[in-house]
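Let's do one together. I've listed all components of the complex below, 548 residues spread over two lines.
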Amino acid sequence: MNDSLLSINDFSVEYDVDPPVEAVKHVTLELRRGEILGLAGESGCGKTTLAYGVQRLLKAPAVITSGSVMFHDASGEDIDINALEVEEMRRFRWDKISMVFQGAMNALNPVATIGSQLEDVFEVHRPSMSGAQRREAVTELLEIVKVGAQRYRSYPHELSGGMRQRVMIAMALALRPQLMVMDEPTTALDVLVQREILRQISQLRHEFGFSVIFITHDLPLLLEISDRIAIMRHGEIVELDTAERIWNHPQDDYTKTLLSSFPRLTAETRLTAQRGVVAR
Amino acid sequence: MTVLEFDGVTKAYSVRGAGQIKALDDVSFTLESGQIIGLVGQSGSGKSTIAKILTQLETPTSGEVRLDGVPIPRRGKELRAYRQKLRMVFQDPFASLNPYHTIRYHLERPLRLDDIVPRDQVDDEVHRLLERVRLDAKAVIDRRPHELSGGQRQRVAIARALASRPSLLVADEPVSMLDVSIRMSVLGLLSDLQHEHGLGVLYITHDLATARHFSDEIMVLNQGRVVESGTADDVILRPQNPYTQELRAASPDPDKFFASSGILGGAQ
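Okay, and this is what the predicted structure of the assembly comes out as:
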């Protein structure tokens, strides 16, 4: 079996506005099976466009202008994502690649219980399952993410932000995908809850063996959870290396700038040099 | 000089079935002019209740809050004067500026409302304010908020807060929605302004790293109580309270992470 899960080759996305914006420029990237790949960069660097683009989740005016995305399925089959027909794409999504979105509070339906929303996933993608099987699967999912089955009939507003984000992770995990794309999954949460969720993602990854593309601009956090990190700027990957090498031996000047721009929690030097910098 | 005093402030909410919940429980502290106090704690610790009391969205159940020695007034001219002396910088610079109005309008309004400068000097003062937050006045003054970046917008929000020459700035997560790379420069700006004008700043955040670098003192709030306070470095580098230690352990810290090569994500 191929040790690579996703091969992105010469991938470009353009926003067809006037003047056109090249959001992602000729990105080539191999995602390994079971790895957590961090995608870091500032607002507007193209990290979200890239992660959405490889799943064909972009809407007009975004246009994929070049490249291919090959998904190496666990069955041994290679799937060219750009070539999938509409119905094939519908089946492919969530089954092979799922997503955890940023605002868990906005991603859940406020007028449906979380149990019924999780059941929906099976109803659509596993139509052969009986109602009892679906309920059993949902109960199991709620236990796996430690929300607890007693919350089956809770509405989103009855749960804390951290709990809701766990429900989103349960939903993403439902069909046992091989890749989860997480877009700022912990940004709205406070540090204690964030830490618990990160631990959980890491544990689940070991248990179920999926890969993760983790998008955030929080570099300190990314350094701690990623196996490898890709630093993006102006639509290009300027550096891609292990978290440890990015931290200890950054090669690109932009990576160095990014690393020096966040305040260090415990390092002895204080960032006084940053004071009074002229606005960009 | 003492700018702000919290004197035994308690705020209790009655919750059906659960009796009383104390969002703040006997909180006392003072903030001097020219001082930055960082207020940290997780969601629900009572940080925002303090901000709500200061902005009078809530009134304390017991205890007293004084600004420049005067208890928070309830109405009339005194209330207006209070609002002039205490200004807020909010988290979301996309929501806190009116998309309909130009930057000039945002800054002229507080100047005119409170008669900060004579009418014929308003325009000069707007330029001075923009200069002070290090924005190019010519480039931004006639623009609307959507034409500016997040960092620029937050600078406008800071300029607006400074317009009425307050003695206290309450900054509730002022940089958490900005890119990491510009957070320090916005905080640096606040810090410079605070030095220049002897402003008191209450910096509310759950980010320990920026709290340490930006604040003189840090207060840690848990379940409505101040569990630890002291100089920024003491609280973050040598935390005594178990809750503070827990917060610190949960915060990303690559320096320590790679030094101990403790592995959480399971890199190799």
